[in-house]
Amino acid sequence: MKIGGPVIAVDGPAAAGKGTLARQLAEVLKLPYLDTGLLYRAVTWKVLEAGSKPTDPAETFARALTIEDTRRSGLRSPEVTQAVSNVAAQPAVREALIDIQRHFASIHGGVLDGRDIGTVIFPEADVKFFITASLPTRALRRFLQMGGDMTASDASEKLHIIEDSLKSRDHIDTNRKNAPLCQAHDAYVIETDAMDAASVLSEALRIVRERLNTCPKVT
Ligand code: CDP
Fold first, then answer.
1. Which ligand 1 atom is at minimum distance from the Cα of 101?
2. Atom of ligand 1 nearest to the CA of 15
3. How far apart are CA 91 and CA 57, in angstroms?
4. Measured between alpha carbons, how far is 55 from 35 in angstroms, rounded to an integer?
5. CA-proximal residue: ligand 1, atom 13 (nearest)
6. What count of Cα atoms within 13 Å lies in the side-chain half-sphere of residue 114?
7. Closest Cα to residue 79, out of 57, 59, 114, 49?
8. What is the pLDDT of residues 66-86, one digit of tens each?
9. Pocket around ligand 1 at a 6 A CB cut-off
10. pLDDT for res 138
11. For 97-106, 150-159, 190-199, 207-216, which range has the lowest pLDDT when averaged over its residues?
């Protein structure tokens, strides 16, 4: 497939900071941005709305999905978050969502974040990142992202619940047979535990410049 711009793949486990990085990279490089997790979340939303279980065949919902469906509210609800990895583990669902992802970047290129962008969706991506961080760091970030207050009396209980939920999703995502979460052999790995979002962006931009041999300006 001939693509009219660079494709940048940003993969990694939940809450590692890949969404923040991918969004910022897209803005700086003036490329379209797709959070592919929202595609799986939108299919899951339809599954739950229909009263089906996450393990019930969901290919029909995936085949009917459009990018507009990812703009629906409620895709980050606890119910969807709890069910999404089981829906995403279905090979037929993944197969049905390949075209929509490839088509998204087919005209201008794009920055896509997910789990299998550099390995399955765009194995020929111009630049691949694998963004990761330890489980406690990721749980803390998700807690704060959700408006959590570290001084609240139930903070540590809530952190544990988030940690368990991330661990369980990581387990399903990493161990599924089809397109598991894994690092592409040619991905740049960025461990973000000791880095803030600005440092991750600046390191990623340095790599993008080196790979694409261009000088995108940080505004
Ligand atoms: O934002 P967060 O890290 O919580 O997750 P997400 O990117 O919204 O993805 C939600 C779920 O969708 C993941 O846990 C995976 O099960 C699935 N997913 C996937 O299988 N492949 C992708 N390319 C993106 C997401």
1. 23
2. 3
3. 10
4. 23
5. 85
6. 29
7. 49
8. 999 999 999 999 999 999 999
9. 14-15, 19, 36-37, 40-41, 84-85, 88, 114-116, 169, 173
10. 97
11. 207-216
Atom 5, ligand 1: residue with shortest CA distance: 14
Q: Which of 41, 84, 100, 138 to mutate to test the pocket of ligand 1 (most atoms within 8 A of CB)?
A: 84
Rg for the chain, CA atoms, rounded: 17
Residue 14 CA to ligand 1 centre (angstroms): 7
Edge-to-edge strand order for the sheet containing 33-35? 33-35, 110-114, 7-11, 127-132, 188-191
Domains of the chain with bracketed CATH: 1-29+112-206 (3.40.50.300), 33-104 (no CATH)
Task: Report how far residue 153's alpha carbon sits from residue 31's, in angstroms, rounded to the nearest whole number.
Answer: 43
